[in-house]
């Protein structure tokens, strides 16, 4: 329902961003289909002149590995090869790979380009005039 409303409204609902993080539940195929639709909308309705903004796909609930609906390597290959996006799995419940997720986010946006710079300074905009905002 939300996807249908989003497609009807036009480009004004896609906010400019330095990067997008799309999170799905590895135990729920419907959540993957949902982020697939959101990814397609972001790519199709990207404002003109916005350039190629990185999109990071995140599989959450890695702690429930035995309940997953698709093998990790299949999903990672699809996301990396077909969608041209980064892919990572994490567990918010156990705080597993959460820091890695944000490190990858900072890498894709170019915040970690300066060696020796602390990531939090980049995130707060200390090294750039145009600040990153994570919502």
TrEMBL record:
PROSITE patterns: RAB, RAS. This is Small monomeric GTPase. Keywords: Nucleotide-binding. InterPro entries: P-loop_NTPase, Ras-like_GTPase_Reg, Small_GTPase. The lineage of its organism: Eukaryota, Metazoa, Chordata, Craniata, Vertebrata. It holds the Pfam family Ras. The keyword Isomerase does not apply. GO terms for molecular function: GTP binding; GTPase activity. It comes from Chiloscyllium punctatum. It comes from the Eukaryota.
């Amino acid at each position: 329902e939300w996807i249908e409303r989003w497609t009807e409204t036009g480009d004004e609902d896609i906010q400019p961003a330095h990067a997008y993080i799309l999170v799905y539940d590895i135990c729920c195929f419907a959540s993957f289909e949902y982020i697939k639709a959101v990814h397609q909308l972001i790519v199709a309705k990207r404002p003109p002149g916005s350039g190629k903004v990185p999109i990071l796909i995140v599989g959450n609930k890695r702690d429930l590995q035995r309940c997953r609906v698709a093998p990790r390597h299949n999903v990672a290959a699809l996301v990396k090869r077909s969608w041209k996006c980064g892919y990572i799995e994490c567990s918010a419940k156990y705080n597993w790979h959460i820091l890695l997720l944000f490190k990858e986010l900072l890498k894709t946006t170019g915040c970690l380009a300066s060696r020796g710079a602390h990531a939090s300074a980049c995130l707060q905009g200390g090294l750039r005039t145009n600040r990153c905002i994570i919502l």
